[in-house]
Structure formats: structure tokens, C-alpha cells
């Protein structure tokens, strides 16, 4: 008997349906010589400190460095405290009985780091020795599932993926457990001050930006504006220089004449290439900007679309596809010819050579970029439809032609030098898909500029002195935070450079949404409109840890890169020793750092 294990019941049942297995049992399905069972996400986790003899919260126990980690059944909160989840225990017993009878096990948990960890922890906890193979697919369509089963991989091919996942799990336990207890104990408070390998540098980024914004002292500066008139079309030109004092600006304003001489006209065409296809992080950013969805909402909606066979694997960190997938893109695009919003552009793309900017097999990680599968969506909620359209629309954008813009700069002399600038889209190209307004035009004074020639003299219809103030960096919202987390806190606007830095980011696309939710649940941050701001508790923790390594985004980003290298075969033991050394150091730092901390009591 072959036993297939999926990550959750809905996926297990869907795979069973593809095989025609319809007999329902308690905790599994069977038919056609196969048995299909499932986990409920993480059934097992690394055991709590008391399992290793570290009882209570005691300075003498720190640092806690188990010689060998143990696995424990997931716990739930009850009135009697944390207890084993009885549903998990029951399902594990069912899985064990099935594994005992199996001739072969097929792993169908999500094809990624956490999916591998979920299965391996079950496999090792049950002390199973049966051989297993891996189903590795990027789509839940019937065709993809069947093709995946025809091309099962040896389970050993993913040993390094498990090593990376297990190292991540161990490092989170070591840093989180020790740092949390050290700071909580040293603070002298009854509050549990949770710290973590990824959550603390994320909190530090939010707090640092908040304080920078709050303490920002705006500087006043002055400009002079004039309005030349070209055959009835008035446009605005701004003084070439900014002025520190009103008097300086007034002097320039007084010199403005009744006419202005067009000293120069520069009109330069510029090609704006289409955006890359979406990975999870970029889609979360777009959904936050367009719809105000949280990162967690977007992931949940996308996961639902994936399980409904409408989009490819959601937790990908790649924005590229290989040539094999690209070969299927024209047929995918054709599926949208009758789409109410995208139909015209889909039909247009069917007649032209597709842009291959997003095609690069070397940049595809475990899974390629997110694409629609070509299945017809039915009965989607408004939110599901919004996310689906973002995926489909981005596919059309990514394979479209460049947007051609003309950037115009007019220099006007009228007592002093004034500059008028504007951007005109000549050929919308990929921007026609969503009919997006050019981002750059939002800050420009002129939507369009009249045609003028060098040497022309135009009447000046108005002039004004403008008082302005410098602005602080905006508070983080979910979109801007996700963008910063990709590059370990470094603000990088260049899309391709940001891609290159991704291996050094904080967390992974699959975990960042959960990290934001964790900080919210722990009352370290709160949502204010669209912004993420620290609470008084979050700021208190930040003030203590901000100079310590646990708050450094670059350090944690470097670890994330190391975990990816372990996936490629790098030494596990070296990383483990490095984490233990770090844990010893940060524990001692925090035992000293928390003294004198003032916090609201939340209880332990």
C-alpha cells in the first residue's frame, strides 16, 4: 500500500479526488491502491525547556543549550494551562498505523522548507524507517498533480532542504527561548518580554523609523513659482534654487519680469521596462497599496486560490520562470482574451513578441514566480477576485512591451532661472494593462507641458512665493516594511538590486506575514490606519535591545543567507556552533541590559 501524506486535509482530499479515491475513513481516504492522509500544518514542534530539565524561569538555567533537540506534540491553551492537542495526538496515531502498513510513502506536503519540516518531524517522531519519495509541484491543477506523480523524486534529494529547515527551527528556539527569559528575568517585571531571531530586528526597524519620524524637526525653505503662458496653456516653473530665508526668495520674486525667455528645451525619450512577475512578497506589497490588504490576508487569499487550482505555488521567493514554463505562457495569456478588464491587452499580446525580462531559469528557486494556471475562476469573493486579477494582470504586464515616456525639462529666464518639468507617456505599453498613472508624475507640477521652442518669449501671468517644509521618512506600512525586510532593512528601490539582496533578507516571503502578526499579537506594534507603529511596550523593549546584536537586521539577514547555503550543502554543524556561541553572548548581554526597565505588567 502506498501512503500519500499532505500538509492539510483539504489538499489531501483534493489529491485523492484526482486519483479517484473516494472512500472516506477517520483521518484519511483510500482507493485505487492508495491511501491519502494529512497533517494539520505543524503537528510537532521542538520540545519546551522543561523537557530538557530546565524547570521554571531561572537565571541559573541560562543559556539553555540542549545537546540534542526533542520533538513534542503541538500544545493548546486550556484553563489548566498548555496541554497536548488531542486532535493532533489522534491524527499522529492514524498516520503511524498507515505508515506501519505502507510499502512506500509519498510526501505531498507543500513543496518548500516548512512543508519538508512538517513531514520530516512526523517521520522522525514516529521512528519510521520506510522509504519515501517526494511530490514536488508548483500547481494544484489535476494535470500538475498527475505529472508530479509520474516524476516523483527520491526523498533523499531533499535532505539538505530539511537540514536548512531544522537549523532554522533550532536557531529560533535557542535565540527566542534564551533571549526572552534573559530579558524578562533581568527586567524584574512579571511581563513576558518575547524576543526572537527575526521578530526583534523587525520590531527594531519599526521603532527606529517611528522615533525618527516623531523626532523629526522640519526645516522651512522657500521657492519662487512663475506661470508662463503659451497660447492659452499656462504651466508652472519653479526657481532653480531653494532659499533658506523668505527675504532671499522675496528678492528673487521681485526680479521676475513680465515675460520669460525659453532658454532651453530638453525632451528625452525613456524606456520603462515592464515589472517582473510577482513573488509572494511583491504581491503582498501591491495588495497593500491597491486594496489595503494585510500581508497575512493576501497570503491567506492566495493560498485559497492555489488550493482552488487557480494560481501556482504561493510561497515562492522567485519572480522569474524558466523557458519550459515560458513556452506555456502564450496559451495562458489567450485564456484572458474575453476578460472584461484585460481582454484587449491579452489579445494584443497574442499578436506580438513577448518580453522575456522575467524569463531566467538560473534565478528560479524552489518554485517559479506566481502565475494563473489557466483554470476558469468561478464564484470568487470580491477579495479573492482582486488578488486573482493582480496575478493575472501582472502576467500580462510582465510580458508586455516597454512603456515609452518623454521627459521634458524647460528652462525659463525671467530675472532668474526657473525650471518646468513634465513626463508624457508616448506609448503606454505594459502600463495599459491596469491603465496605471505613472508614479513619477504624482510629484510633478505639470501633467503635460506645451510645445515651446528655444528663444521664445512668453508672458508671465502669475508669480508666487512658496513656503515649504522638509518631510521625514514616512512611517512603515505593510508594503514598505515588506520591501525593507527583503534586504535586511536596507532601502533599495532598484528592483533588480533588491532581487540580488534577497538571500540576505529578514525571514522569507512565506514567514514575513506571520512575523508581522506575531508582533501585533504580542502588543509590540499596532496598526494606525495603514501604518505600523510601536506600542509603549514595543518601544520599551526596543530601548533595551537597540544596541545589541539581536536587534541588528544585517546579522539576521546573514543567517538567512547561511540557511539557504545549507540547502546547497553547506556545513550544518558550523552554523549550529555559530548560533550557540551567539546565544551565549546575547543571553549574558540581556541579563545585564534589562535591569531598571520600566514596563506595564502583563503577567507571566
UniProtKB/TrEMBL annotation:
Q: Which residues does the UniProt record annotate as the domain Topo IA-type catalytic?
A: 158-587
Q: Which domain of life is it from?
A: Bacteria
Instruction: Tell me which residues make up the Toprim domain.
Output: 1-141
Q: PROSITE patterns annotated for this entry?
A: TOPO_IA_2, TOPRIM
Q: List keywords of the entry alphabetically.
A: DNA-binding, Isomerase, Metal-binding, Topoisomerase
Q: Which reaction does it catalyse?
A: ATP-independent breakage of single-stranded DNA, followed by passage and rejoining
Record organism: Mucilaginibacter pankratovii
Keyword Transport in record: no
Under the heading InterPro entries, the entry gives: Topo_IA (IPR000380), Topo_IA_2 (IPR003601), Topo_IA_cen (IPR013497), Topo_IA_cen_sub1 (IPR013824), Topo_IA_cen_sub2 (IPR013825), Topo_IA_cen_sub3 (IPR013826), Topo_IA_core_domain (IPR023405), Topo_IA_DNA-bd_dom (IPR003602)
Describe the family membership recorded for this protein in Swiss-Prot or TrEMBL: Belongs to the type IA topoisomerase family.
Keyword Lyase, does the record have it?
no
Query: What is the name of this protein?
Result: DNA topoisomerase
Q: What is its EC number?
A: 5.6.2.1
Name the SMART domains on file.
Answer: TOP1Ac, TOP1Bc, TOPRIM
